[in-house]
């Protein structure tokens, strides 16, 4: 809605019922005038502040509206965020307590804080406003989003991972999911202090890392797989060369000798894609001591397992799964779908001979993340099995060491 009908020069008074309506009306007024006056501010924040302040005062005069100093400053800051930042999302992106931001339309913004999902108070103006922010996010990536290309994945400058999907695939309007990452990764001490792992279990895992054990971390989305992988990687000796492979760079390794590789999606013409599988194959030519695949989700798992079997022990990866047993099923399925020719028994033996440990991490009912299982893969009587070393006790609410653990053969696991 324009505030001034230029054909009749008749002023249309805005209906301001609350702060959100005022912000929406003022937002349209200021944006229209910046576009009409062709204001070019580039990176000159002071020039932009002066222009926005002047238009806001013009708005107040036209509509004889008295905006308090504190409210004026807040509105000015939010308008500048709309123009140079990411609008209503800017404050959430700057909030260190927010882990996930989920937009299900202009009036449904949800955030996750400390494992709990809640609806935020801020709103977008409409679907076009959501789409404008999405396009601002993906513009530096050289990507586009529209009806012909309605899905996009990417990574912001601060490392946050984004996924956007718009109509016609998203029936209720543009949707945006943002996974944020801490500037300072969690430490092992913080993990123990928060009850996510015990000192004994951490010592067990760090000893396995130092002794070049191949480890797979499994868990659901947002369970803390990448966080745990970051922490365990700190115990890799500084003399070793690490090559990481990810779809969107999330790992924050503190090691000194790290080569980071990232996959590339196809461009707008449908060409130029570089898959994780291609990067794993290339990594083998880069003289790595260890290879870390941020997430195994496709054919690259075959090359990853072969690398673990051919001198790159101590490598690590993550996988989406609901338990350690389910992680084995997922790996078996991915190997089968990659075109690998072999029976189910052969695939399982290949997995067990390459992989040593599975660490399963998940959420408790209160949303708190913690390690739930630490299992060793074994081959017994020519059959693959899992031997639990640690298991989360939901009665006593702690991770306990399993004494005299028995081996659960995989084809007997329900």
TrEMBL record:
Record protein name field: CpaF family protein
Domain AAA+ ATPase: 211-401
Pfam families linked: T2SSE
Domain of life: Bacteria
Record-stated family: Belongs to the GSP E family.
InterPro entries the UniProt entry points to: AAA+_ATPase, P-loop_NTPase, T2SS/T4SS_dom, T4SS_GSP_E_ATPase
CDD domains per the UniProt record, alphabetical: VirB11-like_ATPase
SMART domains to which the protein is assigned, alphabetical: AAA (SM00382)
Record organism: Spongiibacter thalassae
